[in-house]
Write a structure and sequence with these properties.
Serine Threonine Protein Phosphatase 5, Tetratricopeptide repeat; 32 helices; disordered C terminus; single chain
Length: 681
């Protein structure tokens, strides 16, 4: 009895210690006291509960969950459901946390709060929105502002990831968190300018809120603003201001924020800006997307986008096997998604395997008819790149939902014209016009009233007529023009085209139709010529008649007289011109072509005595020198001689080149001098 009494007294003291430590927030010390209590009574429910709470407060969620699971008989679900669900939530076992919450016998406010967080992580935004609305409606405590912030975050997620138009919650944006979430919702709607203003307001509120705390440094404020600045940079990127966005992204990375999710998103966005350029920087940035815990911080679509960009980066860096591996993994996760198969096809094209790429796309189109249109457009592009324009046209015409679109019609007609297949081009026009006629007939039947033909239909008929006229199909063009004129008899332009076409086929019919043209009186335009000439766009503006001073008037009159008296200027005559002598009629011909030209005189051939430098000899005399033989060694050129050429080059510059005869003569002269020098100079 005395031992039991001593144990009870010790336990009471330990409980007092636990209570005091809990109030002071010293959970590590409280845990020691709880462990001592459990040594006295190992199945004490309250002690086990306290131990779980202490472990949670110290961040030991795995150990806390282990205590709960090993004492299931004592710690039943109605006692410790919240703690168990919270540990599972913090350990990222979201599905298990949801089951624990749903299996609780009583839904307390704490469980409802956690339920909302779990639904948000599971991306069940509709259920999450309903849960938070219920909490806000039925709760009145100091956490109301946090609940409103979470509610706005759900609306922003719906707008961003589900393309849902956000409803006006009527929340007063008094905090920077609410402003930030509102900006995210606007980004989801594409209202980028409004979103930027909201983010600027959020930044201002954040600075005001944190600057009130004297313990908060400027570095702490910048770290808190990092997520706001990241969203600003994203808006800049969407607006095409990539340089500004890149600069802001890099500033955030230099701050080294602790949020791995934020770093992963920023790194991914930088990779998308780099594309196939600056791949070395992209390879460094991609490491930030592989940080531990990133998968628990981002949504499924964000993680999917990062994986797509990893596959593309592998393709740009010529890592073919890695690219195939990543794209195949993505395709297995989302079999209906387009991007994985497009990346695989792009990789095959880089390897010059175009046929395999087309076959891969065709298989995907057959398996997923809903996405066949985009796949077939890619297939057509590959065929065009291979030069198979006709096959590309066949693929495009197989896309039934796009056959009648004006853009598709224009592309097909252009391609068929390039291939000089006019019949197929006209067939494309005909099919599109028939589709619109059938569509119009369905509208008329359903509405039971007359509906005028659509502008697209009429524009197609006009384009078809112009095309047929251009390629000599006059009769077919006349049929189209008559249809247009029938729809609008007041269209003078169409009537003029019709008359022009008939004039080439049936002139009498053209005369009959010309009677329908309006008279010249009705066609005349009442135009104020003065106003037209004085308009801003006139190339010539008539000077307004104004008062002229006497000098100006005389000047203008003088200029007029000069213009009247201006005569043709006389040509110059030679200095020896004699007006009494008749000019030579053949003076304009070259001398060789004149009738009296007799050629050069071939008289006495004078020796070139006295020409050249003193002591030089002629080429003829040097040839008569018997002392010079073919076996004579070549002589070195004299110092400073212009004939010297660098030993490293046999090319003589053009302005140093001389006729072959002159060079030979000079060389012989130099050799003779060299030989004569042996006499004892």
């Amino acid at each position: 009895k005395m031992a039991a009494a001593a144990g009870a007294a010790a336990a009471a003291g330990l409980w007092s210690e636990v209570n005091r430590c809990g109030q002071n927030g010293d959970f590590a010390r409280a845990l020691k006291s709880v462990n001592k209590i459990l040594q006295i009574s190992k199945d004490d429910v309250t002690a086990l509960q306290c131990k779980v709470v202490c472990l949670i407060q110290n961040g030991n969620f795995k150990e806390a969950l282990g205590i709960i699971n090993t004492h299931t008989k004592v710690l039943t679900s109605d006692i410790i459901a919240f703690e168990k669900a919270y540990c599972e939530y913090r350990l990222n076992r979201i599905e298990s946390a949801l089951k624990t919450i749903q299996g609780a016998s009583q839904q307390t406010d704490k469980l409802k709060e956690l339920y909302g967080q779990v639904l948000y992580r599971l991306e069940r935004y509709d259920d999450c929105l309903a849960a938070y609305r219920d909490l806000i409606r039925n709760s009145q405590d100091e956490y109301e502002e946090e609940r409103k912030t979470n509610l706005s975050a759900v609306v922003a997620a719906q707008s961003t990831w589900e393309n849902v138009v956000p409803e006006d919650l009527g929340l007063r944006e008094a905090t920077y968190e609410l402003c930030y979430n509102s900006a995210c919702a606007l980004i989801g709607q594409g209202k980028l300018s409004e979103a930027m203003k909201k983010l600027q307001k959020a930044e201002e509120l954040c600075r005001q809120s944190l600057s009130e705390d004297s313990d908060v440094t400027e570095e702490d404020i910048e770290a808190e603003l990092a997520i706001i600045h990241g969203q600003m940079a994203y808006i800049m990127q969407l607006q095409g201001r990539t340089e500004d966005a890149l600069q802001l992204y890099n500033q955030i990375i230099k701050l080294k924020p602790t949020d791995v999710g934020l770093l992963a998103v920023i790194a991914n966005n930088i990779i998308t800006i780099n594309k196939d350029q600056n791949v070395f920087d992209s390879k460094k940035k991609v490491k930030l997307t592989n940080a531990e815990g990133v998968e628990h911080k981002l949504s499924k679509k964000q993680l999917q986008a990062i994986e797509f960009n990893k596959a593309l980066l592998a393709m740009y860096t010529n890592q073919a096997d890695q690219c195939r591996k990543l794209s195949a993994s993505l395709q297995s996760q989302s079999p209906e998604h387009l991007l994985p198969v497009l990346i695989q096809a792009a990789q095959l094209c880089r390897e010059k395997q175009h046929a395999k790429a087309v076959a891969l796309l065709q298989d995907f189109a057959d398996q997923h008819p809903a996405n066949a249109a985009e796949i077939k457009l890619t297939m057509a592009q590959l065929k065009i790149a291979q030069g198979s324009v006709t096959k590309a046209c066949m693929i495009l015409r197989s896309i039934e939902e796009l056959q009648h679109k004006p853009g598709m019609v224009s592309a097909l007609v252009t391609m068929y014209s390039h291939e000089e297949d006019i019949d197929s081009a006209i067939e494309v026009f005909t099919q599109a016009i028939q589709w619109y006629q059938q569509f119009q007939a369905r509208i008329n039947y359903s509405c039971c009233v007359f509906q005028p033909k659509s502008p697209v239909h009429l524009s197609l008929i006009r384009e078809a007529a112009n095309f047929k006229l251009k390629h000599g199909r006059k009769k077919e063009a006349i049929s189209d023009l008559e249809e247009l004129w029938k729809q609008n008899p007041k269209d003078v332009h169409t009537l003029a085209q019709l008359i022009s076409a008939y004039s080439l086929v049936d002139p009498e019919k053209a005369k009959v139709l010309s009677k329908h043209l309006p008279s010249s009186d009705t066609m005349s335009l009442k135009v104020d010529v003065d106003a037209l000439e004085n308009s801003h766009g006139a190339t010539y503006v008539r000077k307004k008649a104004g008062k002229l001073t006497g000098d100006n008037q005389q000047k203008e009159q003088g200029q007029g007289e000069v213009k009247k008296k201006k005569k043709k200027k006389k040509g110059k005559l030679p200095k020896n011109y004699d007006p009494k002598v008749t000019p030579d009629p053949e003076r304009w011909l070259p001398m060789r072509e004149r009738s009296y030209y007799r050629g050069r005189k071939k008289g006495k051939k004078k020796e070139q005595v006295g020409k050249g430098t003193q002591g030089s000899t002629t080429a003829g005399s040097s040839e008569l020198d018997a002392s010079r033989t073919a076996s004579s060694p070549p002589t070195s050129p004299r110092p400073g001689s212009t004939a010297a050429v660098s030993a490293t080059s046999n090319v003589i510059p053009p302005r140093h080149q001389k006729p072959a005869g002159a060079a030979a003569t000079k060389k012989k002269q130099q050799q003779k001098k060299k030989k004569g020098a042996k006499g004892g100079w």
